[in-house]
Amino acid sequence: MSKDTDNPNSNTSNEASKNNKPQDTVTFALAQSHFLVGDISTNVEKMRTLALQAREQGADVIVFPELALLGYPPQDLLLRPSLSGRVKSALSTLSDIDDIVMIVGYPHVDHHGTFNSAAILHNGHQKGFYHKQILPNYGVFDERRYFDKGRNQVLFDYKGITIGLLICEDLWEKGPISELKKQGADLIVSLNASPFEIEKQDNRKTMLAKRSRENKLPIVYVNAVGGQDDLVFDGGSMAVQADGSIAHEAPRFMNQLLLATLDVKTAKFNEQTKAPLTLSRESEMYQALVVGLRDYVNHSGFSGIIVGLSGGIDSALTLCIAVDALGADKVYAVMMPYEYTSQISLEDAQAQARRLNVSYTVCPIFDAVEGIRHTLAPLFNKSPADTTEENIQARARGVILMALSNKFGHLVITTGNKSELAVGYSTLYGDMAGGFDVLKDVYKSQVYKLASYRNRLEDTPVIPERVITRPPSAELRPDQKDQDSLPDYDVLDGILTSYIDEDMGYQEIIDKGFDAEMVAKVIKMVDNSEYKRLQSPIGTKISHKAFGRERRYPLVNKWSIKG
């Protein structure tokens, strides 16, 4: 069934099916589903269920995402000594599924090394396997730490067509698919675990169209879906014609068993009768944030979440995402006013909590703050008040939220955005205290767009309009505004995007038209806040470069922004 030259780890049998007779069509089932990292037994049972369902619907081949057996990314679970035995045992449990070919992503461990692999299972036997050749080691990917490089192409014959296998990054480079074409492939099957980034689906479509046209090959592209720690996999699985056009596309962010039928004689897929809705930029961002929070909370075993609701736009948007992710019955909002909290903030927080039907509590912090200040008074020795006293307010709120979390088992989610986190406009052990930051990778200017987007989804806004229109404030001192300490957010986010997401230097950012003094100030704030970010909770990645595993800077260094 498989054909693989000089691969010591491959079965080279050319057996196709029970009767080995070509058929007029081959139907592929694209199993776009969520496979939880480490939960091998549940993942295998899900594969079984989907395979039987696909067979019932007339599928000949079912394709699962990259490393679906173990989940992606498994990170140092790949180093566990028991991994090989668990994987072999799990694969053996699928041996009783007949009359459908299963292409399963799994970690392959043998005396040659550890590989990111795809197994070909048919009628109780493993007919062959393929090892990923291009191992990504950038951004969120760290595959060279764990995997050995595959070195051979793998094809298998089935019902009159020759199918070539690739895994994720293999398809982003020209070489692997070109070699499969030279060796006689009629169609490519690609297993993927491709994380979400803003507008990445458009990039995938462009890449797939290019690869299929260059090689005149149809492509079956299957992607994972669901949240894993700070990553979200957004699906969007596709069947692509040899001319680069999309014949079938699965909806984004949803489990879907998508069937695509190939005419063997023409090597063309049948066309999808109804394509999924195209998502706007704000829509895909919002869905990614919902999925990321939902899966993190549910799979971590928390019974609900707690949000510190301030009456400001960040906590308002966070509350909306939390309710959409988990349901109102699992969301608990706490307003913690102090003497600088405005009446407008109290009214807006209460109005939103009522509109979303969440549990809402007002817990004043005056006594807590004054108690701490009284305790510190002898130590401060009549020093004038400064940001220290402001931070005491934030830290009193953090203590209250964490106490409620400890008592009732709910996860505290923080509400800081990427702009604030970038420049250190946040308080360690205060507003940064919590287990998950929903807006960690969302710039302030994007927060406003997402809030307006969410309000447009319903006749009655879920966020009071004046929360969006009034100037943002931390309300830690009288008449405080964010712009007292920071430039206008549109300007700030422009500089931050250039410096963080695009890796531009000082002079390059100035050349874009930004004020030199402002650029220097912002860059210094970003660099000086690295120690804070290292201690911040994780949050869903939506941008090209989030604060997390893909951006690693030394906490202590003497790098000069001006060279």
Largest sheet: 7 strands, mixed
Radius of gyration: 26 Å
The unreliable regions are 5-22
Share of β-strand residues = 15-25%
Q: Helical content, roughly?
A: 25-40%
- What is the architecture of the largest domain at the second tier of CATH? 4-Layer Sandwich
Tally of structural domains: 2
Our count of helices gives 16
Write out the CATH superfamily name of the largest domain.
Answer: Carbon-nitrogen hydrolase
GO molecular function: ATP binding; glutaminase activity; NAD+ synthase (glutamine-hydrolyzing) activity; NAD+ synthase activity; nitrilase activity
Organism: Psychrobacter nivimaris
Protein name: Glutamine-dependent NAD(+) synthetase
GO biological process, one term: NAD+ biosynthetic process
SSE order and pairing:
Blueprint: E1 2-3, E2 25-32, H1 40-56, E3 61-63, H2 83-92, E4 101-110, E5 113-122, E6 125-131, E7 155-158, E8 161-167, H3 174-182, E9 187-192, H4 200-215, E10 219-223, E11 225-228, E12 231-234, E13 238-240, E14 246-249, E15 256-263, E16 268-269, H5 281-300, E17 305-308, H6 313-326, E18 331-335, H7 343-356, E19 359-362, H8 366-380, H9 387-408, E20 411-414, H10 418-423, E21 436-437, H11 444-456, H12 465-469, H13 489-501, H14 506-511, H15 516-528, H16 530-534
Parallel strand pairs: 2-3, 3-4, 8-9, 9-10, 17-18, 17-20, 18-19, 20-21
Antiparallel strand pairs: 1-7, 2-15, 4-5, 5-6, 7-8, 10-13, 11-12, 13-14, 15-16
Helix pairs in contact: 5-6, 5-11, 6-7, 6-11, 8-9, 13-15
